[in-house]
Amino acid sequence: MTPHGTGTLTIGRGNAEGRISGYVLKVIRESTGLTQERFAERLGLDVTTIQGWESGRRPLMAISTGTYLSLRHWLLRFGVQPRLLFQLDMALEADRFVGYVLGTEPEKAGLENHPLASWVITRPFTDLVAWLFTGTAPSAMAGAARGIGRRGPVATAPSLLPDERAHFFDHLKVAAERADTDRVDGMLLRRQAHYVASFDDTAETADWLTVMQRAEEHRMSRVGEWTPSWAVVRSGAHSLARLGDREGLQHFIRVHLADEVCEVANLNYWAYWLGEVGEPQLADTFMIELKPDVWRGTELLRHLIGKLDSANPYLDVVVHTLWALVMLRPSTLDAQRADTLRDAAIRTLDEAIASPQSQRELEAVIYALRMIHRG
Fold this sequence. Notes:
This protein has a domain at 201-374. 61% of the residues lie in helices and 0% in strands. It is built from 17 helices and no strands. Helix 9 packs antiparallel against helix 10. The N and C termini lie far apart (47 Å).
């Protein structure tokens, strides 16, 4: 298997895109209670500059690094919360990706330099990209805007035009199909293009995802150990679950989370996805190379407890991951977390929505909590 390639540094067209970062900046401005006019006045800028940034017509990515850092420093002085500034930084990364996809014909994309082949994307990044298609603001942004009085119709989320949306998903499908399956970075591109493409809720894309999943299952069945194909199948099962196919996710849990290496790989990925692993990862192989003791598990535990919801399409993998975490890292359970987990587990069992395996795992978690409390 060829290692992750370095490729050649190229300057893409991402700096011509700015609608996600512009919208995040708008939310940040509104969180300060300032109108565009007052905001521009405080910054010593013309109001048309602010309007251009917020609309994406003047992409923030196109300004100099010094100007951007000055803007961040001013925002801190305005009392903007650091978490929102982190969202702004990540929105620039999301715009770079979207700009690359929109500015590149699918068949002409240089796959080794593709943004989805260069790093393992994170939840903040993915939530910002998904915002374009779902209209759902990232949780870190929820409630940030104060609802300053506006005139006329106003967009409630960043978005793409219909032809842009069609090009975006066509590009991702072609990239996933053309990715070099003999390279680690090729498989990373395949997995992540596959996953991001699932934000398209059309029947055509659902059928495409199903075909891709079957092909990857077949590839993985020929190897009796963890490979990058395992990561592709994992993401594919999650994508299909979001689109209504929970059986595929249950199959993945039964068949592909049956050994210790894959259990740890699943936990490592969750920890990275939720930010407990601080260092950016360049390839999916981190899932089996990372030692679980480098992350604490408290944020992972909190997140999973909050996702014990019968309406959650990922309920079964949430339950399984909780069970694996409790078995591997019981030290994450202080008295308060143990009580919260027990109550959530009992409620989920009473709802009788989870699969039979998930119900057994919830019962095992409740029993483990009882034993820990007695100890």
